[in-house]
Amino acid sequence: MQRIVVLGGGVGGTLVANLLVRKLKSEIDRGNASVTVVDEKGEHIYQPGFMYIAMGNEKPERLKRSERSLLDDRVRLEVGRAAKIDVEKRTVSLDGDRVLDYDQLILATGSRIVPEEIEHFETEAHHFYSAEAVTFPLRVCVERHGQLNCMDGPAPHGACNFCHAPGSGAVGDPRRIAAP
């Protein structure tokens, strides 16, 4: 049996697991393959949506979903933290003494953003790294700084230019931000 374990239930891990079970449908149905996702919390947070919170077009709670609800029914979900990978034995140990055997291991744990390691970041930057950080709406930046400098270029998901309020560190869609 081909056992595939995906570490990480973010966008990448979820997408890979769902694509694999579609590709391996007949093998899975015959019991010759399995796909398991390991996610620490079992909750999927759509982080690219954080920038829409800052623009006032989204609410943090709408960016959260149960990881199970996003996975194909043929994907097994293990909620827990991967504590150790033993490459020789081809096992992943999870907190709580659970051990998963694998034939193929996919690391989809995402990036680890550490803004606290950048001097003055916490006090001077507006960023999209957490739902809490982006609740500072961009229109407040406009009110405080009085102008926006617009830059041409495509935005994520398509169709807007970005603006910067001088001295604020914030960017946003100029069509949705009204200057005072």
Topology:
Layout: E1 2-7, H1 11-23, H2 25-29, E2 33-39, E3 43-45, H3 50-54, E4 64-66, H4 67-70, E5 75-79, E6 82-86, E7 91-94, E8 98-101, E9 104-107, H5 121-124, H6 138-145, E10 149-151, E11 162-164, E12 171-172
Parallel strand pairs: 1-2, 1-9, 2-5
Antiparallel strand pairs: 3-4, 6-7, 7-8, 10-11, 11-12
Written description of the protein model:
The protein is an alpha/beta fold. The protein folds into two domains: about 1-105, FAD/NAD(P)-binding domain; about 115-175, no CATH class. Helix content is about 20%, strand content about 25%. It contains six helices and twelve strands. The protein has helices spanning about 10-25, 25-30, 50-55, 65-70, 120-125, 140-145, and strands at about 1-5, 35-40, 45, 65, 75-80, 80-85, 90-95, 100, 105, 150, 160-165, 170. The termini are far apart.
Identify the notable features of this structure and list them briefly.
single chain, 180 residues, alpha/beta, FAD/NAD(P)-binding domain, 2 domains, 4-stranded parallel sheet, 3-stranded antiparallel sheet, 27% strand, globular, disordered C terminus
Strand fraction band? 25-35%
Q: How many helical elements?
A: 6
Question: What is the global morphology?
Answer: globular
Note the run of SSEs as H and E. Answer: EHHEEHEHEEEEEHHEEE
Radius of gyration: 21 Å
Major β-sheet profile: 4 strands, parallel
The CATH architecture of the largest domain would be: 3-Layer(bba) Sandwich
**Strand sequence of the main sheet, in spatial order?**
5-2-1-9
Number of strands: 12
CATH topology grouping of the largest domain = FAD/NAD(P)-binding domain
Q: Spell out the CATH superfamily of the largest domain.
A: FAD/NAD(P)-binding domain
Helix content: 10-25%
Q: Briefly, what CATH class of the largest domain? A: Alpha Beta
Residue windows where pLDDT falls under 50 for at least 5 positions? 147-180
Distance between the termini: 64 Å
Mean model confidence by pLDDT:
77
Structural class of the secondary elements?
Answer: alpha/beta
- Domain count, please report it: 2
